[in-house]
């Protein structure tokens, strides 16, 4: 009896299945006695098949298999002066689907990870409100709350690639992005609780960490879809993601998602804080600099194959897999090119398609074993297409640092190795 | 730990044991690890610790001050070592209480630890990385253990904050939260806007600022704001914004002086935020103007009253977000799907040419271009 017939036989009884199992076992037993031919992993009984494994509670908080120990965030030491004001990168090449596991979400801190007991945490609302208020974490959990899946991308993601291909791996070129489900209170409800004055046009969230991070956000965005979140993927925020409280600013640059959120001030003008003047402003070739470039543009990258995830199996059927996202809304389409942008095929989007969330795409191909120049090009629901790197350079020069959403090229060689390249 | 140090420490360990045994219990190394977070911006300790802004602190007990060969100390610290200063529990306690009182001219910007228990705990923590200071729990394990547990549980009882009671109030939609007091708002609302909103009373001169800058800032930013290593450059760079390597400083790039005051007051010195007085911040802001040739007189005094008279040169060069008008976005045209390029595509650049990827062959020396901010 083959697998196929089992699955296709309706009403197959447990008894007949047992019989089938018994018969198969008998065959293996006979063969074993005469030293089996074949894969010893199959023909010989393995330790894990004979001896008991760990019991429940061996790991009260579960961790990945020891064989996944290489799947970790990594940093680039030469980038920054100290690890407390630095960044590391999500291992995109090892992940699938659209949700990033909490322990793999990239980190960006400006004064290290604040260590805060939630009982000691306060959120203050002040400025142009009827009553300046102070909330405890307990208070915040009494407001109506929502669950939303959003990507978070650092504005400097791919910032090291403006002058040309430099880092070999999508973890490094594109890994300042993650996507999780947040649980939190709409910021609108909290602001309304304090009573917004009519001249309140901007809000400024502030962090409780040693950098006391601050950004100005227009009131329209604050009242639209911002959340004051305390959970990610169902559990408490990780310390490095702002435990116990962070702001969620869907689709906008990650720096605005203030972590360890302790205060929101309402004002009639923006504050022009350090992270929206000297940083997170985009210098153009003519010496002018764009400010308040909040929205993250449509972007995509092929995560496998990629330099850290070469092809190990030779020619034949394979899956090209990648992620796409846009701060404008949903991803409508992703095109993939195998020849450096001469010809394109539309990839298959799979999994939930949520506004301002990561999208997963696949292109299933039959690889002939020859060199490929892989590219992906995302389009969002508003018709914005991901530009080429050279189009971006023509419009902005090479010193913008931020908002590099240009099309990435991977050179796949006949031996399956992959390199970060740029093409004509 | 090197074999040499291990061998060395065996001798000193025996000699110093009785002395340390009495005192090493004073601090709690575990709590000290938390206190040490105040130091990690500049100091590393533990396996593989390297010199950062400050020297690494493995085997600091028994070390002569200013004696690490591969670290560049202040002259004052080297002199102190020549004069016989050796780090131990007593000398570290004095030094960390107020570094500049003990070693006048030390590079260490840190102001000192105010709380006695923080001092004891952080020293106990450092002792765990020094063989010359035997860890308390290895000396006489049985006898003081009970005592320690008692103290620990008593401490936890004191420190554990009561879970705040969540009550409702009159007003609002849900009646959640409570009214903030004026003092609470004043304690946290320290932001300054370009129109001067939020500026506190006070003043400071360029000359005062120079002293403060040398003590608190120069260790990372350099004596003239030129930046040490990858730490931010604060001065110079005028007329470089259109060059291949623009230097974005307060003088060349920042649009508003209010941002300088606001940021220094909220986040500097790095690792010891909120330790400067309002007058100190005026003085440092004045000195940063001086370093950028925006004021020339060392007697210049910046105050709440004249703050608004200063304009930074690059203010006019910031523009609104006009990405949507860029040709590749403005068209919103259906992109080409086939035969999109005339000739075969050629590779124009490879990451391998300058491989700065972590884990690549010589990434220790490799240093790439650009940064995250």
TrEMBL record, chain A:
Keywords tagged on the record: Metal-binding, Molybdenum, Oxidoreductase
Entry GO MF terms: heme binding; molybdenum ion binding; molybdopterin cofactor binding; sulfite oxidase activity
Moybdenum cofactor oxidoreductase dimerisation domain residues: 292-408
Cofactor: Mo-molybdopterin
Residues of the Oxidoreductase molybdopterin-binding domain: 110-271
GO aspect biological process, one term: sulfur compound metabolic process
Alphabetized CDD domains for the sequence: bact_SoxC_Moco
Entry-linked NCBIfam families: sulfite_DH_soxC
Stored PANTHER family: SULFITE OXIDASE, MITOCHONDRIAL, SULFITE REDUCTASE
Protein name as annotated: Probable sulfite oxidase molybdopterin subunit
Organism, as annotated: Roseibium aggregatum (strain ATCC 25650 / DSM 13394 / JCM 20685 / NBRC 16684 / NCIMB 2208 / IAM 12614 / B1) (Stappia aggregata)
From TrEMBL, chain B:
Residues annotated as signal peptide: 1-26
Keywords from the named record: Electron transport, Heme, Iron, Metal-binding, Signal, Transport
Top-level taxon in the UniProt lineage: Bacteria
Domain Cytochrome c: 27-130, 204-292
One annotated GO molecular function: electron transfer activity
The keyword Heme is annotated on this UniProt entry: yes
Region of interest: Disordered: 137-164
InterPro entries linked: Cyt_c-like_dom (IPR009056), Cyt_c-like_dom_sf (IPR036909), Cyt_c_1A/1B (IPR002327)
Keyword Transcription applies: no
Pfam families associated with the record: Cytochrom_C (PF00034)
Protein's recorded name: Diheme cytochrome c SoxD
């Amino acid at each position: 009896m083959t697998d196929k017939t089992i699955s296709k036989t309706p009403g197959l009884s447990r008894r007949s299945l047992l019989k089938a199992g018994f018969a198969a076992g008998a065959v293996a037993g006979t063969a074993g006695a005469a030293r089996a031919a074949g894969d010893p992993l199959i023909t010989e009984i393995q330790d894990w098949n004979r001896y008991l494994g760990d019991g429940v509670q061996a790991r009260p908080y579960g961790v990945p298999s020891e064989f996944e120990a290489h799947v970790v965030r990594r940093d680039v030491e030469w980038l920054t002066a100290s690890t407390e004001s630095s960044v590391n990168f999500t291992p995109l090449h090892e992940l699938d689907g659209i949700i990033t596991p909490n322990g793999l979400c990239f980190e960006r801190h400006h004064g290290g990870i604040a260590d805060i007991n939630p009982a000691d945490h306060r959120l203050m609302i002040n400025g142009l409100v009827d009553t300046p208020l102070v909330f405890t974490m307990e208070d915040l959990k009494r407001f109506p709350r929502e669950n939303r899946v959003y990507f978070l991308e650092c504005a400097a993601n791919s910032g090291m690639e403006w002058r040309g291909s430099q880092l070999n791996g999508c973890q490094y070129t594109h890994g300042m992005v993650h996507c999780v489900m947040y649980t939190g209170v709409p910021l609108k409800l909290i602001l309304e609780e304090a009573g917004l004055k009519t001249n309140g046009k901007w809000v400024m969230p502030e962090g409780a960490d040693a950098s006391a991070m601050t950004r100005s956000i227009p009131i329209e965005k604050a009242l639209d879809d911002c959340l004051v979140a305390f959970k990610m993927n169902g559990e408490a925020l990780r310390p490095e993601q702002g435990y116990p409280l962070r702001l969620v600013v869907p689709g906008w640059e990650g720096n605005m998602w203030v972590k360890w959120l302790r205060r929101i001030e309402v004002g009639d003008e923006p504050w022009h804080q350090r992270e929206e003047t000297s940083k997170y402003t985009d210098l153009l070739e003519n010496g002018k600099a764009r400010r308040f470039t909040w929205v993250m543009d449509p972007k995509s990258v092929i995560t496998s194959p990629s330099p850290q995830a070469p092809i190990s199996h030779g020619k034949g059927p394979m899956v090209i897999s990648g992620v796409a996202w846009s701060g404008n809304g949903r991803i409508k389409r992703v095109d993939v090119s195998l020849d450096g942008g001469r010809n394109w095929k539309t990839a298959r989007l799979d999994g939930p398609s949520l506004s301002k969330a990561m999208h997963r795409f696949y292109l299933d191909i039959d690889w002939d074993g020859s060199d490929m120049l892989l590219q992906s090009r995302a389009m969002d629901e508003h018709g914005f297409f991901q530009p080429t790197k050279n189009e971006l350079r023509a419009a902005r020069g090479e010193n913008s640092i931020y908002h590099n959403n240009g099309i990435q090229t991977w050179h796949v060689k006949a031996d399956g190795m992959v390199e970060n390249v740029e093409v004509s | 730990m090197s074999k040499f140090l291990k061998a060395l420490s065996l001798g000193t360990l025996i000699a110093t044991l009785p002395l340390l045994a009495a005192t090493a219990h004073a601090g709690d190394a575990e709590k000290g690890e938390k206190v040490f977070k105040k130091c990690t911006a500049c100091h590393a300790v533990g396996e593989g610790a390297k010199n950062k802004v400050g020297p690494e602190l493995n085997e600091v007990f028994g070390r002569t001050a200013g004696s690490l060969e591969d670290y560049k100390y202040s002259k004052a610290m080297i002199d102190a070592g020549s004069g016989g200063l050796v780090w131990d529990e007593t000398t570290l306690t004095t030094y960390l209480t107020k570094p500049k009182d003990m070693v006048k001219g030390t590079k260490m910007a840190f102001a000192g630890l105010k709380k006695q228990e923080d001092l004891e705990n952080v020293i106990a923590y450092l002792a765990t990385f020094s063989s010359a200071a035997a860890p308390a729990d290895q000396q006489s394990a049985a006898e003081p253990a009970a005592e320690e547990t008692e103290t620990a549980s008593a401490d936890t009882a004191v420190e554990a904050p009561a879970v705040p009671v969540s009550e409702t109030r009159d007003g609002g939609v849900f009646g959640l939260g409570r009214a903030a007091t004026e003092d609470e708002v004043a304690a946290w609302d320290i932001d300054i806007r370009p129109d001067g909103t939020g500026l506190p009373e006070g003043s400071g001169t360029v000359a005062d600022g120079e002293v403060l800058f040398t003590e608190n800032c120069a260790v990372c930013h350099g004596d003239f704001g030129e930046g040490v290593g990858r730490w931010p450059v604060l001065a110079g760079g005028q007329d470089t914004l259109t060059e291949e390597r623009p230097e974005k400083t307060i003088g060349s790039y920042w649009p508003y002086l209010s941002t300088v005051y606001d940021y220094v007051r909220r986040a500097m010195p790095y690792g010891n935020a909120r330790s400067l007085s309002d007058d100190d911040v005026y003085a440092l802001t004045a000195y940063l103007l001086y370093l950028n040739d925006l004021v020339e007189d060392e007697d210049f005094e910046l105050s709440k009253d004249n703050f608004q008279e200063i304009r930074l040169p690059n203010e006019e060069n910031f523009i609104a977000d006009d990405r949507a008008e860029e040709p590749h976005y403005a068209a919103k045209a259906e992109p080409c799907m086939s035969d999109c390029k005339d000739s075969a595509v050629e590779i124009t650049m490879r990451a391998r040419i300058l491989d700065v990827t972590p884990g690549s062959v010589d990434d220790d020396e490799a240093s790439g271009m650009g940064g995250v901010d």
